[in-house]
TrEMBL record:
It holds the Pfam family CMAS. The lineage of its organism: Eukaryota, Rhodophyta, Florideophyceae, Rhodymeniophycidae, Gracilariales. SUPFAM superfamilies: S-adenosyl-L-methionine-dependent methyltransferases. GO terms for biological process: methylation. Belongs to the CFA/CMAS family. This is (S)-coclaurine N-methyltransferase. The keyword Methyltransferase applies. It comes from Gracilariopsis chorda.
Length: 348
């Protein structure tokens, strides 16, 4: 039995200590960097352009059902016990080292609105709206805005609509649809502001996706994108092989873009501003998710049993490992390898 097989056996029994898992994850990350690095800068650029061409040749998205199965149709209660108060399932922003997860959620949501130039009264489209963290934040803080959230998950739609009802918010509308298939958003042709927070990671053909988004924009519209990425490499989340655990169980059909990847897809939109968010913010976010999971494990285990049946113990270990892996990925090299990129686009 190989070392990787032994590690996976221990993992499935929820018997692998965190310190061993962290060492193993760091070694896999170092291996990934070695595999992606070309012998020369010419080779690296050639490979990057091949990846860009490959994305252009594919459908907008593949394995959408897997993404739902792995994340978005999992009972919301699991995430209520692990995420922060806003249910933000993406990187938060820590204005101080001792900031709480709830405060970091608020900070990143506020940063989105500032960087996008959102004004009260705008019509807003939140693409891939998750559990409504941004949709509900805008609805509360920009009460004259009308927000449409697009999600391909009925579980998420039900959660957001219930939260809006509790908070007496009447400026929120949730549409359930697959963005790779939908052409017209119910209720409006164009929007003043579009947001996409950690949705591109599940996509492939960025050119076709941005072309579709541009049809929902008028000349003054802006599109704000938050995408996690590597500093310079583009690669697919693969599913085969012992080392591709993340792709197999949590990001089937996904893509790790490079920091500059969206610059290659400006036929229909153009970049008007750019920012980077140090990877340590995401690392701290996932450390907080892990702490919440461990703190609430007695409440989470019944949810895991009802969701995964006899595999509940294995999936408890998988969710813990997922949060560990996210923390180690974005904390690698002090947050300077993998991080978050923010883009602001205008329509061409």
């Amino acid at each position: 039995m190989s070392i990787m097989q032994i590690a996976e056996t221990l993992l499935e029994r929820n018997a692998a200590p965190d310190w061993i898992m962290r060492i193993g994850i760091r070694r896999l990350l170092a291996q990934r960097l070695r595999e992606e690095a070309g012998a020369t800068i010419e080779e690296e650029m050639r490979h990057k352009m091949e990846m860009i061409q490959s994305l252009n040749s594919k459908e907008i998205a593949i394995e959408q059902e897997k993404a739902n199965e792995q994340h978005y149709e999992v009972p919301s209660e699991l995430f209520l016990y692990t995420l922060g108060k806003r249910m933000k399932y993406s990187s938060c922003y820590y204005e101080s080292a001792d900031a709480s997860l709830d405060a970091a959620e608020e900070s990143m949501l506020r940063l989105y609105c500032q960087r996008a130039g959102l004004k009260d009264g705008m019509s807003v489209l939140d693409l891939g709206c998750g559990w409504g963290s941004l949709t509900l934040y805008i609805a509360e803080n920009y009460p004259q805005c009308k927000i449409t959230g697009l999600s391909n998950s009925w579980t998420q739609r039900k959660f957001i609509e219930e939260e809006a009802r509790k908070k007496k918010l009447h400026n929120v509308k949730i549409v359930t649809a697959d963005i790779s298939q939908v052409e017209r958003i119910e209720g409006s042709h164009t929007f003043d502001m579009l947001f996409s927070i950690e949705m591109f990671e599940h996509m492939k053909n960025y050119g076709a996706l941005l072309r579709k988004m541009s049809k929902w924009m008028h000349k003054q519209s802006r599109l704000f994108v938050h995408i996690f990425c590597h500093n310079k490499y583009i690669y697919d989340f693969e599913t085969e092989g012992a080392t591709n655990w993340m792709g197999r169980y949590f990001f089937t059909g996904g893509t790790m873009g490079s920091d500059d990847v969206l610059h290659f897809f400006q036929d229909d939109v153009k970049v008007v501003d750019r920012w980077r968010v140090d990877g340590r913010h995401y690392a701290q976010t996932s450390e907080h998710w892990l702490q919440n999971l461990d703190r609430n494990i007695s409440k989470i285990r019944p949810i895991l049993r009802s969701t995964y049946g006899e595999e509940a113990t294995k999936w408890e270990a998988y969710w813990r490992t997922f949060y560990l892996a996210v923390a180690e990925l974005f904390g690698y090299n002090d947050g300077q390898e993998w991080h978050v990129a923010h883009y602001l686009f205008a329509k061409r």
